Amino acid sequence: MFKLIKQLTSVVAMFAVLFTFTTETMAAGKSKTLKNTTKKGFVRCGVSQGLPGFSNADAAGNWTGVDVDVCRAVAAAVLGDASKVKFTPLSAKERFTALTSNEIDILSRNTTWTLSRDADIGLTFVGVNFYDGQGFMVRKNSGISSVNDFKDGVSACTNLGTTTELNMRDFFNSKGIKYEPVTFEKADEVVAAYDAGRCDTYTTDKSGLAAQRIKLSNPDDHIVLPETISKEPLGPVVRQGDSVWEDIVRWSLNVMIEAEEYGVNSSNADSMKTSDNPAVKRLVGAEGELGAALGLDNDWSLRIIKQVGNYGESYKRNIADTGILPDRGPNELWTKGGILYVPPAR
Amino acid sequence: MNFKKILPQFLTILAVILVFGFFTYNAQVNMENRGITFGYGFLSQESSFDVQFSLIEYDGSHSYFRAYLVGLLNTILVSVIGIIFATVIGVVVGIARLSKNYLIERTAAVYVEFFRNIPLLLQIFFWYFAALRALPLPQKAEPIFGVFFLTIKGLFVPAFIWNNLDIFIYSIIAAIISIIFVRIYARKKQESEGKQTPVLYISIGLLLILPLLSFIIGGSSFSIEIPVIKQLSNTSFTYEGGIGLPPELIALALALSLYTATFIAECVRAGVQGIGKGQKEAAASIGLTPNQVLKLVVMPQALRIIIPPTTNQYLNLTKNSSLAAAIAYPDLVLVFAGTALMQTGRAIEIVSITMLTYLSLSITISIFMNWYNKKIAIKEK
Prior knowledge:
The structure holds two protein chains of two kinds. Chain A is α/β, with parallel strands linked by helices. In chain A, 41% of the residues lie in helices and 16% in strands. Chain A has a five-stranded mixed beta sheet, with helices on both faces. In chain A, strands 4-1-5 form a three-stranded parallel beta sheet. Chain A has a two-stranded antiparallel ribbon with strand order 2-3. In chain A, strand 2 and strand 3 form a beta hairpin. In chain A, helix 3 packs across helix 9 and helix 3 runs antiparallel to helix 12. Chain B is mainly α. Helix content of chain B is 66%, strand content 7%. Chain B has eleven helices and seven strands. In chain B, a hairpin with a 2-residue loop joins strand 1 and strand 2. The chains are: A alpha/beta, B mainly alpha. At the A-B interface, helix 1, helix 4, helix 5, strand 9 and helix 6 of A face helix 1, helix 4 and helix 10 of B.
């Protein structure tokens, strides 16, 4: 009897080992996410619940923003049509669970890249599409002109489940200031509470402050303090364990930035096929076999540039022209004094 | 024969184990594929985030477990406040619904129909943002009784600073014990001699005199710390000293009690109306006063009808308090299943703990109310 049980266990264990082995090799051989996306015919993209310039839906439900453009670029590369994206608005709290539980395939939602997020919870950050930092917004008539003017008892409104909460504590602790954190689940409530006077300051990423300021009843009555208290590299995220998909998203973003660097944009992309510069020719698919390496055709990058545009176009259309942050600051190319620097597409 | 009986049971258990096992296995495989680790070790790690309002000492240097306790206590706080107010309002409105005065009866009816037919989340938003818009800024707040300040940043109340607090507490315990003895004595006296003792007046007297003695003889004393306004910048102010109750707590407690009170009011009305008219007439015919009729005949019977559905309302209120996250009241869902979940990314662990916690809270309320229900139920002799 005992022997029988032992034998049975070993058989079960063998099956278990075999099963895990087969699933592993299958995942490595072909990207499940890529296969599913092609089958479905659209890219499933997680975005914010409305952050002008990054991901924001208009009255007709059309999404725009630099974060949105990353998903559109992937759709253009994989499916040939930048409009084939299904957007899912997510709160800061829901975003990672939505990604790890397979509800979405790309999370492009002004998400800060940190070690613990990258390593610990089954996510992989593929790059940075916006270099940001946390700042404070206050009322102009408060007379506060620097973070050093904050006093004990200051109340600060912010969003739940963000790195903001942690930075805020580090900052106020280092200054020895006692503060009252008021954290809301949705950004709209943060704005409403700050607007009503519940809080003395509103703290989040500076880009977020600039974007949310528009929603205040009198935007001109508020200023963003000059100090930046943290590094917030924002970028798209994918599930861990699908390296092919990860590469596709990473290089879709990189191609947009590299296109700007070489002066390739949505209107001149076709004519660049005959360029003298081999790097430009590679970028528009006229030379090399870059697409094949990603499991795509060779026009993938040309489609991104033609349908979505290069990074500069995306920034101008979504962030500069809307008056959110006309100055590109660190988000300028490395060749122009910024820190946008991507590995070469070759 | 025996086999036929056991087989369905066995199959049910097998099905449960298989379903449960499948979900566990599925979660395990998926988590492994995505490189997610599983474990409760994070509870002892430093949380590194602060919470706006806490009943116990807490800041970001404490552990996630401590943050969990902070959230749990805040949930219990708002639930207890909600239950007390909902019960008081519910009983008053429920009795008002039975009033012969047309105006009172109609007002109560309109209140009930209005508040129970609007989704609770909307009511919470309404009370919070309406309150925020309506309440004055700290520097413009008029003191209430000279010591309370109701402002957009919360309700600031004076704090008591005690000397020899323990003696005061002993005196109250002594008062409660003597009241129990008085009640036992009064009941015995009524059973043997048929005479009634004014228990209520004696109890009130005891509750006043004994604590008073602790001040005069025991050396207890307290001073009151009144909130003082403090300037933070040219235009922003706050209060220091005393106790500050955040507007989120007030709005949430208000919304929860007003909403749940409508249901309790209906339970009370149903309970009282469920007592036959003959009962009251019979009681009156043996010479009981109207007060005695209510206290000795109607209420004991009505309570039996009122308690079970009211228990449901208490449970609902406790569970509904999780809507707090919408208006930044740091309850269990906001602190633990919100911020802590986000910072650690341990969704399965944290959600399971949170679910178990609500389950335990609800079961505790249930057990207590069932005990009370049994106590007042008809005892067959």
